[in-house]
Amino acid sequence: MIVEREIEYEDNGKPFQGVIAYDDSNQGPVPGVLISHAWGGQGDFDANKARLLAELGYVGMALDVYGKGIRGSSPEENAGLMQPLLEDRPELQSRMLAALKTIQSIPEVDENRIAAMGYCFGGLCVLDLARAGGDLRGVISLHGFFTPPGNLDSKNIKAKVLALHGYDDPMVPPDAIDQLAAEMTSAGVDWQIHAYGNTRHAFTNPKANDPERGTVYDADADRRSWQTCVNFFAEVLG
């Protein structure tokens, strides 16, 4: 049976609250996967991904970057929550490392087999976790932001890196894809980038329907990208 519960943790005295899901019939510790949320904060979308991962035999943990109970309810609020962390990448990295430490401490998790995935802003978060030298087998950025931080050398990355991206994403255009490829290659990272044609930002989110902002759900890209995630986790966590 899939068990789902909240889990609280701290970073620098600030409370955070994640959601974990796992199959209680698992025999012994199993690999864990962190899920990093988009700019609005942790919600049902992320908890659902944790449940899907639990059904695949992993422990899924929807982490919390903003703090316990802190969520945005409008584009303006979302931007107000995200922007300070974009401007203070060491703080963002500290919060991500705290989430990693938390999933590693869960008894049901094999602490040596951890991966992370993130959506939109969460894609940048998991890339920064890898850049911070997090002990990860792999990270996946889904329609994420790629801008590297100024405080880290990408040669710290231990994880395999996969970016799943809409080629027509107006927020992260093709030249940003090339820059990520150059960054990863220079650092000697095992990386992949899959670009989906005629696909825009937030393509995995069924609620994304704002062409003027460039956020459009795409059922085919959603399905294809999830299968690619499943294959990637089987490779890096097997």
Which tags fit this structure?
6 helices; alpha/beta; Rossmann fold; 238 residues; 8-stranded mixed β-sheet; globular; single chain
Plain-language structure description:
With 238 residues, this protein is an alpha/beta fold. It has a single domain (25-41, 70-237), classed as Alpha/Beta hydrolase fold, catalytic domain (Rossmann fold, 3-Layer(aba) Sandwich). Helix content is 36%, strand content 27%. The chain contains six helices and ten strands, in the order E-E-E-H-E-H-H-E-H-E-E-H-E-E-E-H. The chain has helices at 44-55, 75-87, 89-105, 121-131, 174-186, 219-237; strands spanning 2-11, 14-23, 30-36, 59-62, 109-119, 138-142, 160-166, 191-196, 209-210, 215-216. The strands form two sheets. Strands 1-2-4-3-5-6-7-8 form an eight-stranded mixed sheet, sandwiched between helices. The protein has a two-stranded antiparallel sheet with strand order 9-10. A hairpin with a 4-residue loop joins strand 9 (209-210) and strand 10 (215-216). The longest helix has 19 residues, at 219-237. It starts with a strand and ends with a helix. The model has no long low-confidence stretch (mean pLDDT 97).
As for the CATH topology, it is: Rossmann fold
Tally the beta strands: 10
* Count of DSSP-assigned helices: 6
| Helical fraction | 25-40%
Mean pLDDT: 97
Kindly estimate the percentage of residues that lie in beta strands according to DSSP. Answer: 25-35%
Radius of gyration: 16 Å
Relevant CATH superfamily:
Alpha/Beta hydrolase fold, catalytic domain
